[in-house]
TrEMBL record:
Keywords: Hydrolase. One of its GO terms (biological process) is ATP biosynthetic process. This is 8-oxo-dGTP diphosphatase. GO terms for molecular function: bis(5'-nucleosyl)-tetraphosphatase (asymmetrical) activity. Residues 7-133 form the Nudix hydrolase domain. SMART domains: PGAM (SM00855).
């Protein structure tokens, strides 16, 4: 995440797109206050996650319900004498309609990317659109999270697989639920330990989905190697992504970094805090982007 000046403005938005003929078109909004055409965006509410704000603002400004896919370039500029940072994501539109002009946005248009680049009023919007246009088609999306806080292993007297979330972890699981829901998963899969299943329970309740226990996302058992588990997890993630539907997955801290390194084909900092996670975008069986949640 980028640093923010104390008095700075934080905002988020997206390039919402939909199929059109043999290509795609993207959504722009017209703001009468400024007389401009721009990408839909808006300020974060206090304590709001940028990705939640991005999806909410796109819906509020354009009446487009969208599923986030890939983080796009962050824009920084001055607005009314203050620094402003705007995070953008590409988003697949899944529902539109019902737009009513108001004092903030009085018109919405859908254009192919070249026409949108010509229409927008600001160079930074054109740069975000250019980055979007350079992306391969996203064919699968996964919200991958690590289980939330579950106390210390040494203080739990039973089998480690039965160790439950503590109060901190329960709060983390509740906070993760709306982020997982943003990708509109059709399946939720969890590693075997109780704390992993419990991490997805608030999301399952929100989405009215069952949780499928999948050992491919478990940490090593006696006699297993970490690399072996990472390979199994990576393979299952590819399998899920190539099915062409969004899914939510909860795994463990010894598995996620190795699985992501294999999928990315490179070593990087894929360490994941408890209750943290990733937005994964795939094109066919190739990982296109891994963005921290």
């Amino acid at each position: 995440m980028m640093d923010e000046e104390p008095a700075g403005i934080r905002a988020a938005g997206g390039v919402a797109w939909r199929p059109s003929g043999g290509g795609i078109e993207v959504c722009l909004v017209h703001r009468p206050r400024y007389g401009d055409w721009s990408l839909p965006k808006g300020k974060l509410e206090r304590g709001e996650h940028p990705l939640l704000a991005a999806v909410r603002e796109v819906a509020e400004e354009s009446d487009v319900q969208a599923v986030p896919q890939v983080r796009l370039p962050t824009v920084r500029y001055r607005s009314e004498g203050r620094s402003k940072v705007v995070d953008y994501w590409s988003m697949r539109a899944v529902a539109t309609g019902g737009f009513q002009p108001d004092t903030e946005v009085d018109d919405v248009c859908w254009l192919d990317v070249d026409a949108a680049v010509r229409r927008v009023s600001y160079p930074h919007d054109a740069q975000v659109l250019a980055a979007f246009a350079a992306l391969p088609a996203v064919t699968g999306t996964v919200a991958l999270v690590r289980h939330a806080h579950a106390g210390k292993r040494a203080t739990w007297s039973g089998p480690d697989t039965g160790r439950p979330l503590d109060a901190e972890g329960t709060a983390q699981a509740r906070a993760l639920a709306p982020l997982v829901a943003l990708v509109r998963p059709v399946r939720l899969l969890s590693a075997s330990p109780r704390r992993c299943v419990q991490t997805l329970e608030p999301a399952a309740a929100l989405l009215d989905l069952p949780i499928e226990v999948c050992g491919d996302f478990d940490e090593p058992q006696p006699g297993q190697q970490v690399d072996e588990c990472a390979l199994a997890a990576a393979g299952r993630l590819v399998e899920l992504a190539t099915a062409g539907e969004s899914v939510g997955v909860c795994s463990q801290g010894k598995v996620i970094p190795g699985a992501l390194a294999r999928l990315a084909g490179r070593e990087a900092d894929f360490s994941t805090a408890k209750g943290g996670g990733w937005l994964l975008a795939f094109t066919a069986d190739r990982l296109l982007a891994a963005d921290r949640l």
